[in-house]
Design a protein that fits this description.
Elements (H helix, E strand, L loop, with lengths): L15 E4 L2 E7 L7 E7 L6 E3 L6 H13 L9 E4 L4 H14 L2 E5 L3 H6 L8 H9 L3 H8 L5 H4 L8 E3 L4 E4 L2 E7 L8 E5 L4 E5 L20 H13 L5 E4 L8 H24 L5 H7 L14 H20 L3 E6 L2 E6 L1
Parallel strand pairs: 4-5, 5-6, 6-7, 11-12
Antiparallel strand pairs: 1-2, 2-3, 3-4, 8-9, 9-10, 10-11, 13-14
């Protein structure tokens, strides 16, 4: 389909038309790595519906209000926010809008365990600390345990949505109909929203054009995040192609093309992880330390604490898939998962 002209810099503020009645609105983030998140505004008979809403902070509210004003709306007009997953950069501003204006909030049902279990008194990543120890990374686990909530994070609204989005549900917004598809992996309850008639996929963080999403970074991660993620990618690959409307990055012409790239990337990482085990690495931490990270091929020790945590846990997810495939054998050694060639 023909889409409205998009700025060269995808983070440029404003309401950028995807098609009549659908606009992309980049919203700022308090992050040095991710500078913006895309909200999508859909016109409906009840008022504008927003898909993903940004991080609850004054800068986000201002940017969203300014974009809506160019469409003839104000924040109080937002009827509903549909949220792809419960990370703060997608969910928290939706809760702020509900608190201020009564907008309804809907979230994938699979996110319920993490929403229910979140307790800032337990720290940011209690379950991840346990997993790091099992990965043979006790020193890194200790450093993660010292991470404190930032001022932005301490003030985050955190409640249940008004209602849950269910896999297979169809959300009707006037002439627009969105199919809800469960796509676990990035989080256990991640959903994407598919406008089949228009050939659009509101992909959240499931399919991103320039980066590979983290896996299972949530309060209650699933046991097999990579296996779930690969299955979810193949689900989209089996559907008609669509325009990719991601949460981070520019609109791109083909979901299928990017899905194929992501599947190839993970296949390469599976092969690399297996190779390091055959070379003598035994734990997820040892394998992660032997692999290159990011496009710059950095070493594990060159990453910050968050980066190291994500790298080790992603490596463990790959090793887990290799064990499921029978490529590797696994054993528990004093609470640490050890891998060896089968």
């Amino acid at each position: 389909m023909t889409i409205g002209e998009q700025p060269e810099d995808w983070t440029e503020p404003g309401a950028h038309m995807v098609k009549p009645g659908v606009h992309r609105v980049p919203l700022p983030l308090p992050s040095k790595d991710l500078h913006a998140v895309n909200a999508y505004v859909i016109e409906s008979p009840e008022g504008p519906v927003v898909i993903d809403s940004g991080w609850a902070m004054p800068e986000t509210e201002k940017a969203l209000a300014q974009a809506l004003s160019t469409l003839g709306h104000q924040l109080a007009d937002v009827a509903c926010v549909l949220v792809t997953h419960a990370h703060w950069d997608h969910y928290s501003q939706a809760l702020a809008l509900r608190g201020a204006f009564g907008s309804r909030v809907r979230l994938g049902r699979g996110e319920r365990p993490s929403v229910e279990a979140f307790d800032p008194e337990q720290g940011l990543y209690p379950r991840q600390i346990e997993l790091l120890r099992a990965c043979g990374a006790p020193e890194l686990a200790g450093r993660v345990a010292t991470l404190e909530l930032s001022s932005y994070e301490r003030d985050m609204p955190w409640q249940f949505p008004d209602s849950w989005l269910d896999d297979g549900e169809r959300v009707r917004l006037g002439q627009v109909e969105l199919d809800v598809l469960a796509t676990p992996g990035h989080t256990r309850g991640h959903v994407v929203l598919r406008d089949a008639a228009a050939g659009l996929l509101f992909a959240g963080d499931h399919v991103l054009p320039h980066i590979t999403p983290s896996l299972g970074l949530e309060v209650v991660p699933s046991a097999k995040p990579l296996r779930s993620y690969l299955d979810s990618l193949q689900l989209l690959q089996g559907m008609p192609d669509a325009l990719l409307l991601p949460a981070h990055g520019p609109i791109t012409p083909s979901v299928h093309t990017r899905v194929e790239e992501l599947l190839s990337h993970h296949e390469e990482r599976l092969e690399a992880a297996a190779r390091e085990v055959r070379a003598g690495a035994r734990t997820a931490y040892e394998v992660a330390a032997a692999l290159p990270w990011t496009r710059r091929a950095r070493r594990l020790d060159d990453l910050d604490v968050m980066g190291q945590m994500l790298a080790v846990l992603e490596t463990d997810a790959h090793l887990d898939v290799l064990a499921d495939q029978g490529v590797l054998a696994t054993a528990d050694l004093d609470g640490v998962r050890a891998y060896a060639p089968s």
